[in-house]
Amino acid sequence: MFRRAAVTCQLLLIAEPVLAAGLTRWLEGAPDAAIRPVQAAEELNGAPDLVLWRPADATPLAVLQREATLLRERWQPAPLLIVLGSGHGLDRAALLLLPAEGLLEAPDADLLHRAIATLRQGGRVVELCSASGAVPPSSQRLSIGQALLVGGLQQIDVARCGCRLLLERTNLHPLARLMLEGRLRELGAARRLLLWLWGPLSLAWPDQGPDQGETGGAAPAANRAALVGSSAPARTSLTLQQRNAAGVWSAVQQRLTAAIEAGPANHTGQLLAIEGLNPQRRIDLLIALLHQLDCIRRQLADEVGQSPGDAAALLAERWPALQRQLRQQALVAMASPYVQLPRDGALRPVAVSLVEASDPEAGDPELPDAQAMLATLVLARPLLVDGRLLPADEPQAVLHLERLVSNWLLRSAELLAADVLACCGDWPDLRRYLLRPELLSTRNLERLRNQLNAQQRWLSWFQRPIALYESRRELLCLDGSQIATLQLLEPRDQELRQLGWLQQLVALALEARDALAPQLRQLISGVGNLLVVLLTQVVGRAIGLVGRGILQGMGRSIGRS
């Protein structure tokens, strides 16, 4: 028997001596392949298979970019792997622009081995421990009702916690105990009043039942963080096994699936229709949409391969019909095609009833044109990101593509969830199957639907014209364990010209304010200066003369007496 020789990877290691020694021990212990680390170019047998650079700590970003570019030019086509230490303090967006196939921050031996194996197979790896890019709490925009509800509930919780701490004392006077128990009842009534006034936003604290609300149970810390929009640093992990359209989509799909299964909380500052669904049904709907998009992508890729014509024109022609089919299949997968529930004295299939009641032609005006997303997913075409046309396998392009897909995913789920809420309005048994327990009450369900409709009208009549005039588009993104918003700047002049008369009046008022504000500011400044002159030079001097005359008159009268 012959022993099969291990494949040797000739790796050029560039690092300081102490760091190079530690990395060499890790590299020589690779379990799946023999890695031969070389620290000098003279020791290479030909060209290296991989270049690993461990820059010194506190290396400036400009030096990283320059040295990485020189290493790529010197050792091309060998992939470049940059290993950074922890606590470098560099911006994540700037690090993603480094010309390197691999970028690791404070990796362990196992992660380093997996990254080398991926790079040798032609993939890309990014592992950063910087912040996940979530919207900070200070930038969260809350409506008046949300701000009053959040602030009121937080103050009530603090007061109730203080009362409970006092009640735990053993030597508390009976009269003081009665007063504290009465105070707890008052706080409970105030909390119920807030929830009654501001409605289904209380769904953001799902773990608190009515019993806890009356007895003074506090909302969980995680749910309270969901209301105020707190976020924690997360690891940015991106691995491309292949650098084509299939590899890019596989990386995006894995990241979105992990974010969906984590049960993302709403950090957008507005009500979402999917919040009315049962948490498991919400996850099922998003996963079904993602799976159907995967099937549609494969179908379009096959059709493009078989069609000799323009691929972009084929995508634009086929996408509307496939999107309608996709939404219907996602509804069926979410509701299960075999479930039947009683309605009007007979068993009705839930999936068929939802498909018949839904509107597959419904659209969201904030959904951007899907052609850029489809061209990258199917054809691996470059993507325009912040004014730069980036290849589909660049880390920034992959992350931007993930934002586009998650925005389509969430807005499509919003349209389907709104249809589900409407269907549950006259089908009580369907509420137990699809909706949250709080929405079993007809009053709560109708209040949620009314608030969603009012919010939609406000967004359509006022906020959308302002966003169009300012060339802004709001994306809904799955960012770790939360649903956040991202403002994307892009020209929207054509949409602005298609607005109705009321929306155009809003844009016209905004334009008039921009035109008149400088002149009005100058007018106010001039009037203010004039008032200052009048008060100091005219009125002040007149008052001074009058006061001097009074003092002189008083002095003469005193002298005569």
Summary, kept brief:
This protein is α/β, with parallel strands linked by helices.
> Given the C-alpha coordinates, what overall shape results?
extended
Query: Percentage of helical residues?
Result: 55-70%
Helix/sheet category = alpha/beta
Number of domains: 3
What are its keywords?
alpha/beta, seven-stranded mixed β-sheet, single chain, three-stranded mixed β-sheet, Rossmann fold, disordered N terminus, 561 residues
Q: What's the topology here?
A:
Elements: E1 8-14, H1 17-28, E2 34-38, E3 50-53, H2 61-75, E4 80-84, H3 92-95, E5 102-105, H4 109-120, E6 124-128, H5 144-167, H6 174-198, H7 210-215, H8 221-228, E7 236-240, H9 245-261, E8 265-266, H10 279-306, H11 311-335, E9 340-343, E10 346-349, H12 350-357, H13 371-379, E11 383-385, E12 388-390, H14 395-424, H15 428-434, H16 442-469, E13 472-479, E14 482-489, H17 493-497, H18 501-560
Helix pairs in contact: 5-6, 9-10, 9-13, 9-14, 10-11, 10-13, 10-14, 11-12, 11-13, 16-18
